[in-house]
Fold Dihydrofolate synthase/folylpolyglutamate synthase.
Amino acid sequence: MRFDTLDEWLDWQSGLHPSAIDLGLERVASVWRRLHPTPFPCPVISVAGTNGKGSCVAFAEAILSAAGYRVGSYTSPHLRRYNERIRVAREEVDDARICRAFERIDQARGATSLTYFEFGTLAALDIFAAAGLDAVVLEVGLGGRLDAVNIIDADVALITTVDLDHVEWLGATREEIGREKAGIMRPGAPVVFATGDPPRSVREQARRLGAPLLVSGEAFGYRATEQGWEWRAGERVRRSLPIPQLRGAHQLDNAAAVLMALESIGHRLPVDQQAVRTGLQDLRLRGRFEIVERSPLVILDVAHNVEAARLLRDNLRRMYSPGPTVAVFAMLGDKDLPGVARLLAPLIDHWYAAPLQGARSLPVARLLEGLSAAGVDPAQQSGCPSLAGALEAARTAAGEEGRVVVFGSFYTVGGVLELL
């Protein structure tokens, strides 16, 4: 084996390819065909979208597992441990298993160069193909059409939302980004769109492929009830469903879309009402409006773009706080910092900006400049040398009756989870 530990493999992969992101399927698909020339052995649900992908993967995994199925799930990025990305039967795959998959990929690739993400995607798929699974749920990393996950044909595609993010890779308009997300569709296979009003490009791609497009508010929907909520698709109704453990009204959009996706392949993976109820009640997912401390309240949210910031804002508005709201904030350089800050500024009394590790992260001075560009008063901003320092200062500023909101990136939330 080339390396003995997972960390050694990951360090090597980080510098193997000339660029960290290299969209395209030719290289990664050629390696996959050498490893597994036959079709994937079980039904596949692929999840793309601007936000909500991780939540949808978690919903599908929890419900299918509660129905008695053995499920593999792949997500990215991770918060604390790389192993979070690859799960079999709701358990993270251990280092040794991932290292063996990396070795197989390294041998199969020959002279083909792969990115860090492509290596990880191939490892997850290789592990899943050998694990005797009943279903696989895959989160698309970036876009859809040219993302490494798209080498696998989805039996049902789920698109969560389409909004502006990664514009340098996916396009500067919602129509252009929708066209990239729609790349995960396959001829004749159902496509679920989790919110109303999909871009025209999504509808056109579904029509070209003869793929049934199931849009929230058209093909299916949900409503709140005294007992929780109910879901309906035509004559099919699921009543008295419990509110999901994940906080935020938008999580019902995600849960309803997952139920539609599962319904569309119910002939292969039937799911009864009790499995749905159990899956909704048992689900846990870190960093999604997650409360981890009280006095002061500490809330972790991976919101890192404008759409996600809007949802975070709405969640904060619904939650009463007798004390101040204080932010621990760090972002990557390719995000719309002023756009995020403008949405949340009316709710935040003070911002503590902190640095992240890595070439894509914004230094503290740039974070403060972005806050000022969004109209945040310099008196409401403080630069900190570390996440630890920012968290300590924010707790003090919030006091026992206030709240600390940690957001801006998966890496921000992951770093604070390590501190906690």
In short: The first strand starts at residue 44 and ends at 48. Residues 6-282 form a domain with the UDP-N-acetylmuramoyl-L-alanine:D-glutamate ligase fold (CATH 3.40.1190.10).
